[in-house]
């Protein structure tokens, strides 16, 4: 037996052993096998739809279970499953989620409706955003209060604050609190805050666009009384400008050289 055959044999054996050992965990909602790498460690549900079924009614869950949850958590105004199904059955389709128009009120004929996965996902994201906005910072204000005057959504705000925190060695809560302490002077702060540089007027929006630095980071510098355009940013601005000019010159040259082939 040569070396190649030996290796083939050993690898073959090993794979056979693995196959024998490999077990799968069933999804806790629909019972289908979970095949992804984290199966059995953290995740107990098979995929997107079942993931949402865990927080919402419907989706991958059998209808009996949906009714059982409605009944157990006292979420519905219907007395029995038959009554529920009489009102909601005609509009049901496979994989539908049962949502409420008003989340303060119970499920009833007027308040609940069946929605497909994308809509349920959107509601889920909105609710997560609401939860994030309501988070209270150490100084007693909520993240939503700090974020609101800037006119940015909560996800972008948190991301930019994370970047600033990393750059200046602070925690994200500290950064958010400081943004909350000094709200922007006007609703159009990105355009109204501007600086002179080499005989030109630059707004925050323009510096951000040309230098590739986030506008919240630039506002932070302005708020702290730092130079808005330091050597690094000046270099970036010059680089962008020279590239843009080179491009414009190139286009001019092309236009000058261009001759329609049917003329002359
Ligand atoms: Zn599942």
Structure description:
- The chain is mainly alpha-helical and 264 residues long.
- It folds into three domains: 77 residues, no CATH class; 47 residues, no CATH class; 66 residues, no CATH class.
- Helices cover 53% and strands 8% of the residues.
- The chain contains twelve helices and seven strands.
- The strands form three sheets. The protein has a three-stranded antiparallel β-sheet with strand order 3-4-5, sandwiched between helices. A two-stranded antiparallel ribbon has the order 1-2.
- A hairpin with a 6-residue loop joins strand 1 and strand 2.
- The protein is extended, with a radius of gyration of 29 Å.
- The protein starts with a helix and ends in a 7-residue tail after the last helix.
- The mean pLDDT is 87.
- The protein binds zinc ion (ZN).
- The site of zinc ion has 8 residues, from loops.
Q: Which small compounds were modeled alongside the protein?
A: zinc ion
Radius of gyration: 29 Å
Question: Would you tell me the overall average pLDDT?
Answer: 87
**Physical arrangement of strands within the biggest beta sheet:** 3-4-5
User: How many strands?
Assistant: 7
Give the class from helix and strand content and strand pairing: mainly alpha
| DSSP helix fraction | 40-55%
Beginning-to-end CA distance, first to last residue = 79 Å
């Amino acid at each position: 037996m040569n070396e190649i055959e030996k290796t083939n044999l050993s690898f073959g054996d090993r794979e056979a052993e693995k196959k024998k050992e490999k077990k799968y965990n069933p999804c806790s909602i629909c019972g289908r096998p979970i095949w992804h790498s984290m199966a059995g460690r953290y995740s107990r549900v098979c995929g997107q739809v079942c993931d949402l079924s865990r927080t919402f009614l419907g989706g991958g869950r059998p209808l009996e279970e949906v009714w059982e949850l409605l009944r157990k958590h006292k979420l519905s105004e219907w007395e029995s499953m038959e009554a529920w199904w009489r009102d909601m059955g005609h509009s049901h389709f496979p994989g539908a989620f049962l949502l409420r128009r008003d989340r303060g009120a119970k499920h009833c004929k007027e308040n609940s409706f069946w929605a497909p996965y994308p809509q349920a996902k959107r509601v889920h994201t909105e609710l997560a955003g609401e939860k994030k906005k309501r988070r209270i910072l150490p100084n007693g204000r909520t993240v939503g209060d700090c974020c609101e005057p800037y006119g940015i959504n909560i996800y972008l705000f948190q991301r930019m604050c994370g970047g600033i925190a990393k750059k200046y060695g602070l925690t994200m809560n500290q950064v958010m609190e400081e943004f909350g302490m000094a709200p922007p002077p006007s609703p159009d702060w990105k355009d109204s805050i501007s600086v002179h540089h080499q005989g030109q007027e630059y707004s925050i929006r323009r510096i951000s666009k040309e230098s590739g630095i986030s506008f919240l980071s630039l506002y932070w510098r302005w708020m702290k009384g730092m130079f808005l355009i330091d050597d690094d940013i000046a270099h970036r601005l010059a680089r962008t400008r020279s590239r843009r000019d080179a491009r414009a010159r190139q286009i001019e040259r092309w236009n000058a050289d261009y001759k329609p082939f049917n003329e002359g």
